[in-house]
User: Fold this.
Amino acid sequence: MSRELHTFDAALERVTHDITRIGNLLRDTDRYLRGRYSATSSAGGWRQFLQEDGAPSAAGTSCSVTALVAMGVARTDTQLKGATEFLMADACADGGWSKPRHSGQFSLTLTTCMSLLALADMEVPAGHPAFSGGLAWLTNAQNPDGGWGGIARDGLSDTTSTAYAIRVLTADAEVESRARAQIDAGVDWLTRGRSDTGGWGVRGDEPPSLAHTSHAVEALLAAGRPRESLRSAREWMVRELGTSPLMPWVEHYNFPDDYGESVAATMRSERLRWTHLPAERSLIALMKLGHDPRHEIVGPLVEDIVRRHQGAYWQVQSMPGTAPSWAVVEAVRALDVYRKALETTGYTSVFREIADVLVERMSATDSENVTLRADVAVLEERVAALETARETRSRIALALRRVRAFCTSPATLATLVIATTAALVVLYLQVWSPEAEEGDRMIGVSTIIVPALALLEMVRRRGAP
Assistant:
């Protein structure tokens, strides 16, 4: 039992250690983001690359807002309120959000989605002009096939953009009820693009990846799909994590050739990049799918994220020396959902494990007790038999002692002497009677001598000390 209790204590200590370690990392991140806040005349925010100086951007600000809210910072915080004001003022004329250099040309689906998610995190009402304008742009940007692409109605739907759009449209109950048709169309597009293995790629005709599968899983769960319907995706991720390196996955987006005059000629050959982080994305998806946070496949994901923590921000292997805001929010969300899983199920799983061990031990002990009880019953039977034999021997010994006592008692001896003497007298008279023959006399003499000698021996033993 002591060995099981030691294992139990060690498991509890590991859970507590992980929760404490994550809490320390998030506090470091909070301090770093505070120091990188860029105030403007009326608001403020963060750059996309946090190590840089200059004016904030929608991408950097939305990522930082979501990260801080996930870390538990109050929405009344001065910096968060300033960042919210910046986001609402930074929307493009078409209602969406874009990168600074593209804001006069077009809005980007992912930047718009991240900005709307940040506003939703700050509980901005869906009827606010900035929020409603962003939602209008997003619903109008949906492609005819039901998915979303990098820009509005580009005919190049991809998993990441579609997943982000679904998450936005399901973030608010009122919005979700109004956008049910768009959500269902997006879910249908994702469902059709699922590979036979259970995972998702950039699009249905491309090999699945951990990052895209994670995005699809998160969106489908947000849309109300049950976890059980995504079991094959979880199983594929677990298999893939056992063999694939946790390297960033860079997705490139090329503007369509026929996008029209809305894109400047100098930009038509430009490519947008979106860097996916498989460790963070996989951890988010697995925890949302209810995977055991203490499963052997989860530990390496957490350690990979922790290892890349550079004191305050998270490093991306393909971009050394930079502090991308999108890497911060992905790491914070992954560690936050992992910590919550530990707090809600980690301790429970430890108790369940020790309970299973104890039940197994008790079952084995019960089996051993049955055997022991059978052995004890046999021993009891043998003891009873021995006790019976002992009692019999005791009764015989007692009888012998009584016979001996009777035989050696003075009364018995006196009786024997008298009886023997009388017998001798009778024999003597018979032997020496005139009618007795010579042979009979010899026999009589012999008969007299034997009891006489026996009588003398009895008297001698009685008198012996």
